[in-house]
């Protein structure tokens, strides 16, 4: 419990207090945010706002995680699962940083090409996937991930290893890539209004803080394999610690990212937190449940897909005034703060529903 408090508190304080220095540095380096010319005209006043703020909250989250462990010492050791989440977070932050840096150098809203960005995400997700099948815990015998697709826990009849060891591993890697690329890009799409993606992610992380801690309390190696609904998840407490660290860091970032934003997270931040959510879903064996917990991200991404598909089918007609859907409400005259708060409420509802589904799944097991 002490590690949780220290990790979250340090990460929050680090991001909150360090961000002003980062904002001044970015101004000096000229890393201002380019604004897409086809976006809402009200966004043009944001041109030049410091970006790549994700660098600070990623560093804050990683530092908070390690300092939380340093304070408690050997009683709560660093685990393979926690390090895998750090790998995903930092790896996708690096991909996002390349994209942001390219944008600022060219001073246009397009950085890496779509395939270049996806290529970077695939490399990180593939390394994560393969490592997650290794590092078997000597006591419980569990690896950080399994080859079974999961919802509340692993679904036995969706164990990809049933296809054979070679095809099974290939299918598993493809599944992890699909999940990682989808979630990280979904958060990236949602990051279009001041504080929107930040607040929504804090709420989604709150669900994983509950899930990780509950799995720790109900772990089979703690309560006994015969206990009702016990969880076979490796290192759930450490997954909770890294979740708290990132949530705390994002709370500190929200102070500066709330409307009117003094700094944007950039792709550096959005890809990192999207990848982290994906990693937490994989390692807590709640992959399909992420569809519910991250329901707002699904809506945002779905609005883009529907808009483009309808535009092509009808040869130029649109369902929404603009996608993602938060821009649709902007063009209808809603204030940005109003959209953000209402979407946070939606994100909170999805979080509550996701936690409720998880708990009911445990009760019925």
From TrEMBL:
Where on the tree of life does the source sit, at the highest rank?
Bacteria
Keywords of this protein's UniProt record, alphabetized? Answer: Cell cycle, Cell division, Cell membrane, Cell shape, Cell wall biogenesis/degradation, Magnesium, Membrane, Metal-binding, Peptidoglycan synthesis, Transferase, Transmembrane, Transmembrane helix
Keyword Magnesium in annotation: yes
CDD domains annotated for this entry? Answer: GT_MraY (cd06852)
How would you describe this protein's topology in the membrane? Answer: Multi-pass membrane protein
Which GO cellular component term is one of those annotated?
Answer: plasma membrane
Name under which the protein is recorded = Phospho-N-acetylmuramoyl-pentapeptide-transferase
- Give TM regions: 52-71, 78-98, 118-135, 156-176, 196-216, 237-256, 341-362
Q: Which cofactor does it need?
A: Mg(2+)
Family per record? Belongs to the glycosyltransferase 4 family. MraY subfamily.
Query: What biological-process terms (Gene Ontology) are attached?
Result: cell division; cell wall organization; peptidoglycan biosynthetic process; regulation of cell shape
Molecular-function annotations in GO: metal ion binding; phospho-N-acetylmuramoyl-pentapeptide-transferase activity; UDP-N-acetylmuramoyl-L-alanyl-D-glutamyl-meso-2,6-diaminopimelyl-D-alanyl-D-alanine:undecaprenyl-phosphate transferase activity
- Pfam families per UniProt: Glycos_transf_4 (PF00953), MraY_sig1 (PF10555)
User: Which pathway does it take part in?
Assistant: Cell wall biogenesis; peptidoglycan biosynthesis
Task: Give the E.C. number(s).
Answer: 2.7.8.13
Catalysed reactions, semicolon-separated: UDP-N-acetyl-alpha-D-muramoyl-L-alanyl-gamma-D-glutamyl-meso-2,6-diaminopimeloyl-D-alanyl-D-alanine + di-trans,octa-cis-undecaprenyl phosphate = di-trans,octa-cis-undecaprenyl diphospho-N-acetyl-alpha-D-muramoyl-L-alanyl-D-glutamyl-meso-2,6-diaminopimeloyl-D-alanyl-D-alanine + UMP
NCBIfam families attached to this UniProt entry: mraY
Q: What organism does this protein naturally occur in?
A: Microlunatus elymi
Its annotated function is as follows: Catalyzes the initial step of the lipid cycle reactions in the biosynthesis of the cell wall peptidoglycan: transfers peptidoglycan precursor phospho-MurNAc-pentapeptide from UDP-MurNAc-pentapeptide onto the lipid carrier undecaprenyl phosphate, yielding undecaprenyl-pyrophosphoryl-MurNAc-pentapeptide, known as lipid I.
Q: What class of enzyme is it?
A: transferase
Under PANTHER family, the record lists: PHOSPHO-N-ACETYLMURAMOYL-PENTAPEPTIDE-TRANSFERASE (PTHR22926), PHOSPHO-N-ACETYLMURAMOYL-PENTAPEPTIDE-TRANSFERASE HOMOLOG (PTHR22926:SF5)
Binding annotation for Mg(2+):
188, 267
Localisation: Cell membrane; Membrane
